[in-house]
Amino acid sequence: xxxxxxxxxxxxxxxxxxxxxxxxxxxxxxxxxxxxxxxxxxxxxxxxxxxxxxxxxxxxxxxxxxxxxxxxxxxxxxxxxxxxxxxxxxxxxxxxxxxxxxxxxxxxxxxxxxxxxxxxxxxxxxxxxxxxxxxxxxxxxxxxxxxxxxxxxxxxxxxxxxxxxxxxxxxxxxxxxxxxxxxxxxxxxxxxxxxxxxxxxxxxxxxxxxxxxxxxxxxxxxxxxxxxxxxxxxxxxxxxxxxxxxxxxxxxxxxxxxxxxxxxxxxxxxxxxxxxxxxxxxxxxxxxxxxxxxxxxxxxxxxxxxxxxxxxxxxxxxxxxxxxxxxxxxxxxxxxxxxxxxxxxxxxxxxxxxxxx
Amino acid sequence: xxxxxxxxxxxxxxxxxxxxxxxxxxxxxxxxxxxxxxxxxxxxxxxxxxxxxxxxxxxxxxxxxxxxxxxxxxxxxxxxxxxxxxxxxxxxxxxxxxxxxxxxxxxxxxxxxxxxxxxxxxxxxxxxxxxxxxxxxxxxxxxxxxxxxxxxxxxxxxxxxxxxxxxxxxxxxxxxxxxxxxxxxxxxxxxxxxxxxxxxxxxxxxxxxxxxxxxxxxxxxxxxxxxxxxxxxxxxxxxxxxxxxxxxxxxxxxxxxxxxxxxxxxxxxxxxxxxxxxxxxxxxxxxxxxxxxxxxxxxxxxxxxxxxxxxxxxxxxxxxxxxxxxxxxxxxxxxxxxxxxxxxxxxx
Lengths: 357, 348
Hints:
Chain A: Keywords: Cell membrane, Membrane, Transmembrane, Transmembrane helix. Chain A: One of its GO terms (cellular component) is plasma membrane. Chain A: It is a multi-pass membrane protein. Chain A: It holds the Pfam family BPD_transp_2. Chain A: It is found in: Cell membrane. By secondary structure, chain A is mainly alpha-helical. Chain A is built from 16 helices and no strands. Chain A is globular. Chain B starts with a helix and ends in an 8-residue tail after the last helix. Chain B contains eleven helices and twelve strands. Chain B has helices at residues 2-22, 62-76, 95-104, 118-127, 152-166, 181-197, 214-226, 239-252, 267-270, 283-295, 325-340, and strands at 48-51, 84-87, 109-113, 133-136, 145-150, 171-176, 202-207, 231-235, 258-263, 275-281, 302-306, 313-315. By secondary structure, chain B is of the alpha/beta class. Chains A and B meet through helix 2, helix 4, helix 12, helix 14 and helix 15 of A and helix 1 and helix 3 of B.
């Protein structure tokens, strides 16, 4: 029990918490200036998320992919890589799961896991491309993964248009029932909200993330490369292989996210005119979550609640959608600029120390 | 302490910047009771909501047009201000929850704006059989959904006639958003109109694949004008803003280029100097029409097509500024032929 409390008073928890509060305050001031009542707006947000079973279920639906992309970014970050390509890896995961979901006819017990596995491998390989280019040619992974995001987007549209979309439509055929991972009884309980097994898989993925990085030898290597590649190399680790590996696992998380989005939420893939945004939000989620699996889940919940609740603010309090983005942006800003936040936190910590003695 | 102060001052500074940006927002909401209907009681104080696609209500295009329609409806029927509202969608995933929000809240009519929402609206309609929904640009097969589609090809045909008569280079361009049936109708109608006047004129077509990428619109327009095209008809929502932008730049350099606007009278937004005419799609009228039917208890599901005959599409009234009399006369002739069925404009 003491350990749990220790976690919550630690700076690593306090700083994001204060950053979030500062972000919400900044948003409130922006709303005041725009002539909106921030208290009403935040109440509307909370009411939207927790007010009905349907909306609560949909909030969980919104949170799930953010956990995956958050893990994707955080994992690579642990090896010292900045994976901006989670978006592309997510999309490639969508493609792979749609292909498997539509093309094959298998018993459900095999079909759904196979479709998810396909998404995982596709996302992983997509991430590994950027990893390989970094390892073999020293190309900055930020550049390549951003470019691969666009390649993935247009590849998705091409694959769908060429093979899976009936003439005159802009969505692919539906994946076979056996590949669908929507939880029917749970969805019914939540008034037809689109709940699916992906949420459980996301939590399992976070546990996997933790065990792999902190409880295995190869995880130790990955983290070691992230902390100091030169020392790691001197110690006899293969830095390049670890870079590719980190990007593969990162991409894999994002890929599973894409797959569960198709198999659990949409059941088909649409022509996309823009990125899904989950991959980019994943960067912020990883950042707020301090690149730890538990932190990522909490940050994804925060992000999901904010983005889903935003429509409540728009609906009941009349706050324009742009303003909620100001709130979210300020939260990210204060987390990123934790130097500023520490100024606010320091007095609290000091007092604690004095009181504790 | 100094540090705290400096941080605070930076914070206030950046805040005031943010604030300056949103100061003017509230006026955007129209005042409900200003409508001068005297005391005429509304048939029934209906509540009508709409869900935009990712374009949002300031897209200078059909989302905006629909929202203007709802605002006009509110004044016309003397409804309280909160009886019309919209929800903007951030991504595909938002369509269903946004539509559901209105439905579950007991709104009398919920609009989905745009072809992209078709499947999602169908799902919501099936799950809520008692709710009434309506959609623009898509056919949704459900008894509680009114689907309103436009014969864009007929209006675009007229735009094509204007372009064919006005081009000096014998090359005209078409910039489409996403390659979907609706946009295809613009494309084919426009081409048919051009060819009807002069089959030797070349029509160059590009689909940008997006409705919300002005940068792509600009670069596409740039390469088209570079190839000698002097008139571009766009049907690409916000992407088209870039087409206008490029035309403006070139006009400033003395090049004689034009854009034909879409959905709304875009000369009002982008100016007469570059807007030759606009192919107007009366989304606002459609929104009002269906909602009024509802308030009079005449709402019914099913598909309705609005074309030239129904005044659902057509060229903007301001066309007279840049298009000579004789061309407009020709346009009118073609219009009559289409209305009478002497010309059938291809749509597929």
